[in-house]
Amino acid sequence: MNLIDNYPTSRVPTNIRLSFLSVTLVHAGMLTALDQFMLGAVLGHSMTIADAFLAIFISSIIFGVVTFGLGFAGMKEGLSSSLLARWCGFGQIGSILVSLVIATSLIGWFGVQNAVFAKGLNFALGDKLGFEWSATFSGLFLTVLVAFGFKALRFTAWIAVPFFIIVIVFISVRILDNHNTIELINSIPTGKPMTLSSAITLIMGGCIVASLITPDMSRYSKNSRQVFLITMVSIILGEFLVNGLAILLARALNTADVVTIMTETAGGIGLLVIIFSTLRVNDINLYSSSLSIANSISVLTGKKVNYTLITHEFRSL
Questions:
Q1: Closest by alpha carbon to 250, among 235, 265, 236, 267?
Q2: What are the angstrom distances between the C-alpha of 32 and each of 36, 129, 232, 280?
Q3: Strand, coil or helix: what is 257?
Q4: Domain boundaries along the sequence of the chain
Q5: For the domain 18-315, what is the CATH superfamily, name and number?
Q6: Scanning 112, 132, 247, 301, which has its CA 20 to 30 A from the CA of 315?
Q7: Cα–Cα distance, 198 to 210 (Å, whole number)
Q8: Per-residue pLDDT in tens (0 to 9) along the chain, 317 residues
């Protein structure tokens, strides 16, 4: 914590910026996640392959432009999303509103993801703890983890991102090996039809928050080239690889239920994917939420705040 501070209300000094891979894994972790896989499964169950990938392509362009722009600003100024809103356009009162919107959105996702985490954990333990205790345990664990700041995000990303990608590819190969890929591509979707505009809206709704909190991570980047590559890696891995495989798997198994896909095809490994995926996304949710609240408290009181204390208090909400 001495080398890598959280800088909730100040700039990240240029002399402690991190490596490209460290920031990339954390950022890519937001899109190489279970909710992204769920999104791909819905697209595959409701749209033709061509329309699904067209929706992904259009959404990726929008996401890429917004993410790079915000990420570049975060890198250039060394500031989090909330501080950028405060010092680069919205003012102090406006930044409070931006911070509250971000924090409210992320704490909602924290609850959803924690429920998925707890469900997977409880299933893995044979229902010995029960859902309520599993949710309590997972929430406390994530709070303690995120109290260590960006260092904790790096640690979980180094483990969870490669593991998630490897297992997703393994599951895909295992399932698709028994199917004719050409037939899957040409097959008619069996789910409720979805229009192209609805699909684009659905995709952007799932990733726009990732764009908004990109400065929370890119402020540790060294230059604009790193920010551009971070954005591209996240798009390729999250939007095209994870979504693309999920589309084919949903078509092969004729279901959009991701938990079923994971548990029935990968067993215990699939459950680990669920647990690690939600853990990785939720630590980012809690981290960025705490930064947003730190900015709001700083504006209202004029005092610097303790990041670790905010993390613990915010989780209790």
A1: 265
A2: 7, 29, 13, 10
A3: coil
A4: 18-315
A5: Hydantoin permease (1.10.4160.10)
A6: 301
A7: 19
A8: 333 456 877 889 988 899 999 899 989 988 887 778 788 888 988 899 899 999 999 999 999 999 999 999 999 999 999 899 888 878 888 888 888 888 887 877 777 777 777 877 777 677 788 888 888 887 787 777 766 666 777 877 888 888 888 888 888 888 888 788 788 888 888 888 899 999 999 999 878 888 999 999 999 999 999 999 999 999 999 889 988 888 888 888 776 666 666 666 666 676 677 777 777 777 788 788 888 888 888 888 876 665 555 444 444 44
- Residues with Cβ < 8 Å from 230, sequence gap 6 or more? 20, 23, 24, 27, 28, 71, 217, 218, 221
CA angle centred on 44, ends 258 and 124, rounded to 5°: 5
Q: Which two tokens stand for residue 199?
A: 């699909």
